[in-house]
Amino acid sequence: MSQSTLPKSPPDGLWRCTANWLTAATIFSAVGTAGSLFLSISLGLKACPLCFYQRSFVMAVLAVLALGRFLERSRPGLICFLCVPLTWAGLGVAAFHEYLVLSNVLECPQALFGIGTAPVQSLVVFIVLAVAVSSGAWCGREETRRQNASTLVSAVLLGLVLAAACVKSSPPLPPVPAVAYDPIKQPLDTCRRPFTAPKN
Hints:
By secondary structure, the chain is an all-alpha fold.
């Protein structure tokens, strides 16, 4: 392979910018993973299928970022690029989950520190992750020959296809309850269909 066909090394300033995006993505994926586990293990909340998909995606992103930083520290843009489909898949599922909550199809428990619901916090984490890994992949696009705008868009689309597949294949929603939930016997510890009082 001739020297002219090898990918160019990005300038130092651009490399640092890409590495900063990688660091931000690593921190937020770790926060998202820890927060998700804390909700289940410490607070006793039960993950619904959509929550489980989001947890799986954020854990996968953290795993890729951690291994990438260990094995390919010199190419942060490539590491970010590999996380683009997983991140956008999680973002798609999180957005759909929050849409169900806003549409009053689901009600979900409060999240950490009582700031919004679990789907809201998950959506925020995935938005930040999507910005971080997409920006890192774009800044480091000169690290490999095939890492360009078209492949980045393709990676985003692949992630959205994965999100659609998760939503389509998820178990059906539980039935609407016929009577109001008992706050003692049936605490709001998972995402569920809300009770709607019949109109007179």
